[in-house]
Design brief:
The protein is α+β, with helices and mostly antiparallel strands. The protein is built from 25 helices and 27 strands. The strands form five sheets. An eight-stranded mixed beta barrel has the order 19-20-22-23-24-25-26-27, surrounded by six helices. The chain has a six-stranded antiparallel beta sheet with strand order 2-1-6-5-4-3. A five-stranded antiparallel beta sheet has the order 8-7-11-10-9, sandwiched between helices. It is rod-shaped. The N terminus is likely disordered. It binds ligand C2E and calcium ion (2 copies).
Amino acid sequence: MTAQAAAPVISNLDTVPVPIVIADATGAILSVNEAASRVIGVPLPGEKLEQRFLLDAVDQLRAFEPGSGHHVVGATVVADGRPRPVRLDVNASGDGVIVAFRFIDEEIRRAGRLRSVEGTLRQLAASVPVGILSSEQGMRADFVNERCCNVFGTHAEELLGFGWLDFLDRADVEAAEIGLAQVIEELREVRLALRLHRPDGSVRHVELCAAPVADNGRDVGFVASIQDVTSAHETNQLLEQQAHSDPLTGLPNRSVLAEVTAEVAARCESALLFVDLDNFKFVNDSLGHGSGDVLLCVIADRLRSCTRGEDTVVRFGGDEFVVVIGDELGSDAVRAIADRILSEVAEPVQLGDIETRITASVGIVSVPAAVTTEQVDELLRDADIAMYESKRLGKNRMTFFDGRMRDGLQERLELDAALRRALSAESDEISVSYQPIVDLPTSRVVGVEALLRWRHPERGPIPPDQFIPVAEETGLIGQLGRLVLRRALAAVASMREIPGREDLYVSVNMSANDLSAADLVEAVRQALLTESLPGSALRLELTESAAMADADQATRVLTELKDLGVAISIDDFGTGYSSLSYLQLLPVDMIKIDRSFVADLASSRVLVEAIAALARAWNMPVVAEGVETIDQADFLNTMGVEFAQGYLYSPAVPVDELRKLLS
Ligand code: C2E
Ligand code: CA
Ligand code: CA
């Protein structure tokens, strides 16, 4: 290599595809390699770097201290007759420098494109109606759009970095961290429901959907859309609330019971009260559903008012309510609450211009600590059983659940099923027997009492005292009552054909349920018509308690029956609790002294005498039931009791036997 000759091409660098130029400390080009010569041509001897390169960064190159390593500068090279951007890689080499250069037009173009893509994205991000928050790495936000700021109710500066996390509800921060960790580490998309606290104090519900963004798999960040879903959330909550509340009374409905009970049980032992209104169906049917609704609302309010804030009152359905006691109370305190409920419910209710009264039957079960939601159904069943026990014992009372009641219930369920079968099959399991009622002084039969008989195919005869209460509970009594009425009238019609028996009457027992049936009077009229009988061929017996269950209704119905000529007897007189003066207001024709008094005349003598005297004063004949001995008959006769019924004369007998007896 000589000074005169053109700067030599460094042939051993020729194989290197990168353009390389070697210069001395003054910048004079010493040599170029093949690749460089192709770009900048072959320099003349002594030609300086800056003459070949249009060095924008020539000063930087000058400042470059020979022997001090490696330096990168940008420059512009005129190549192929046009300036092209290059990146110069300047390496110290002895006194001089080795400059490798690389055209970077393509890189610059690409970066420009990227910049414009990012610009477009940002523009897009600004215009979409969704908040956007993105991070290049981890949870650190490096971009938020305006909508995102609106959602947070603050400025971008507050949100960038980790700032946005400060706005999250503290209870949600962990969920956000876990969720975004999944995005970043598992490269999954994640949807999070979060609450934000805005600087203005309001709380917003947002939905954040985050997807991972990876830069060549190295730094992973995410881009998330953020939407304010507060109003949707509120609507949802409203719907949810509606799904869990009873629209009529506004009380929570049964769907909350399992949860509420388990919640209380997690804290302490408590109790659950099952409250069922007595004879509600009657009010509903007779006064109309509108009044029934008003009544339910009044009762709901009263239940709320006689429980405490920590208790929950639920409308279980129809006329059934459940009260979950909210804390630990002894059985006396629970009893006191139930007492308050019973007396509050029993207060008069004004429905338009009608004042009515309703009572409730309450079943109470204690809720052991740590009951699971699954066990709540069982508790409800037990409370229901106890409530039924209250009904059975005469309603308007409370009963604490006792495991033995379950057996009783089982028995009643079986009886009910068997009774239904017996009734539907038109089998001869069910029949009616007749017990004569005699005129005491003469022993002449004046009437007969129709008494139900049931012969179970396996169990044999089942006494009416056992199956009638069950039929009353389940409503089957309606069907049974009509059956007795039809058969009894058919029987008495045929007995009246026997000479001398033209005035015979049949006495049919009625339940409180029969009395509240809307079509009782019509059914009686029809049955009489079918047998072409006058009303006087029929008497209806009802107990004091049945008559008093709804005295107004009873008065109405009994008056209509009397108009048909049907007479009314008060059965089991003396065992009820009603006031005699009230009874006097009822259109009653006859009193039947309960057989328990007759059985023990020695001690009930005064009472029987009093009843007989009272009946005389009211001008009502008296029948003594259960007369078994001549002595009893004589004694009753001297006390002025006119009629008698009992084994002394005859037990209840089938219709064929009765015919023989009367002929
Ligand atoms: P009840 O109306 O007081 O009927 C009189 C009961 O006394 C009958 O019992 C009868 O067999 C019984 N008895 C009659 N004479 C004597 C006697 O000298 N000594 C004793 N110890 N008992 C006597 P039964 O037939 O078992 O009926 C029991 C109850 O079942 C009836 O009491 C009545 O309340 C009810 N019942 C019977 N048939 C019907 C019916 O068709 N409808 C309704 N709703 N209830 C009925
Ligand atoms: Ca009777
Ligand atoms: Ca009786």
